[in-house]
Amino acid sequence: MNNSESSSPLRIGVLGLDTSHAETFAEEFTSIDDATVSAVWDGGAVQDETYLQEFCETYDARAYDDPSAMLGDLDAVTVLTVDWDTHRELAVPFLEAGVPTFVDKVVAGTVDDLAALDDAASEASLFGGSSIPFHPTLEACPRGTAGRTLYAASYNDPFYYGVHAVDSVRSIADAPWARVTPQPGPGIEVEVTFENNVRADIRFDGNTDQPAFGFLDVADRTRTARITVGDGYEAMREAFFEAFLSVVRGERDDTDRILDAATLQLAIHAAIEADESVTPGDEALRAYHADGAAYANAYATDRSAAVRGDW
User: Fold this and answer.
1) What domain range includes position 120?
2) Average pLDDT, integer, range 202-229
3) Residue 228 lies in a domain
4) How far apart, in whole angstroms, are the C-alpha atoms of residue 92 and residue 294?
5) Which tens digits make up the pLDDT trace of 187-203?
6) Which end of the chain, N or C, is less surrounded by CB atoms within 10 Å?
7) In CATH, what number is assigned to the domain containing residue 300?
8) Do 34 and 112 belong together in one domain?
C-alpha cells in the first residue's frame, strides 16, 4: 500500500460498472474520511460510455481505457465485473504488483482461476466474495466450534446468489471444507463437512415471494438468523468495507478464507452437476466450469431474470 505512511486518502480503483455494486462501493468509500474512488475502468458489457462518464463525474474519478494503466496510481482495487471469468485477468496484475485487491462474488468459475489468484496473492492480500457473512446476526455467531451443525437457505440463482449462503457457512465454520455431498430432494441441497467436523446443510432454492437468507446454527447454543433485503444492511456494509480497508492497511488478511469459500462454491455445483460427492482435488471439481460469460450475457439482456435464475 503506497499511502501507509501518509495521511492522504486511500486511492481505490473500480474495475467494472456492470452491477449496482459499483455505486454501492463508491458511496461507501466516499463516506469514509480516509478513502476515495480515484480511478475507474469499464468494459462496456452492461453499461454504456455515458454511464461511465457520469459515474466518474459523480465520484470525481478518472476513467481509464486500460486497467493496467492504473498500476502505480492506486492503493487498492475492486474487481466488480459480473462475468466472473474476467476476474483472474483483471485481478492478477494488481495482486502481482502488490496492490490489495477486492474480487466481487462470484470470485471465479474454475479452480484454475482460483489457483492463479492464490499464486498472485503471495504479493498482496485478496478480499471479496459476499458481504452477508458480515451481517450483525451472523457476526454474532462464534467461529469454529468443532462438531456444530449449520443449516442455511438461499434464494434466486443457485450459483450467483447461492454464494451468499456458501460464504456465510464457510465463515462461521472457520475451517477448510472437506467434502460436499448432494442430498435427495425436494430441493437443491447439499451437505458440506469441514476439516474441524462442522457439518452444514445448504439449500439453494428458497421461496422468492418473501425472499430471505435463513440460517440455523446448532453449537454451544442454538441461534437463528433471517436476513431480508435491506434488513441490517447498513451495519453489514459498514463492517464489510471496514474489513476491506483493514486489509488495505495491512491489518488483516482474509485470503485463505476467500479462496477456500470460492473453491467450496465450485465444489458444491460440481457435486450437484455430477450427482456425487466431491472432495478437494477430485477430477469433477478440476473439470467444472461455471460459465461467467454466459451469465453476463443473460444479465445484460434481462438483469432481473438472471438474478432470479431464469436464464
Assistant:
1) 10-130
2) 94
3) yes
4) 22
5) 999 999 999 999 999 99
6) C
7) 3.30.360
8) yes
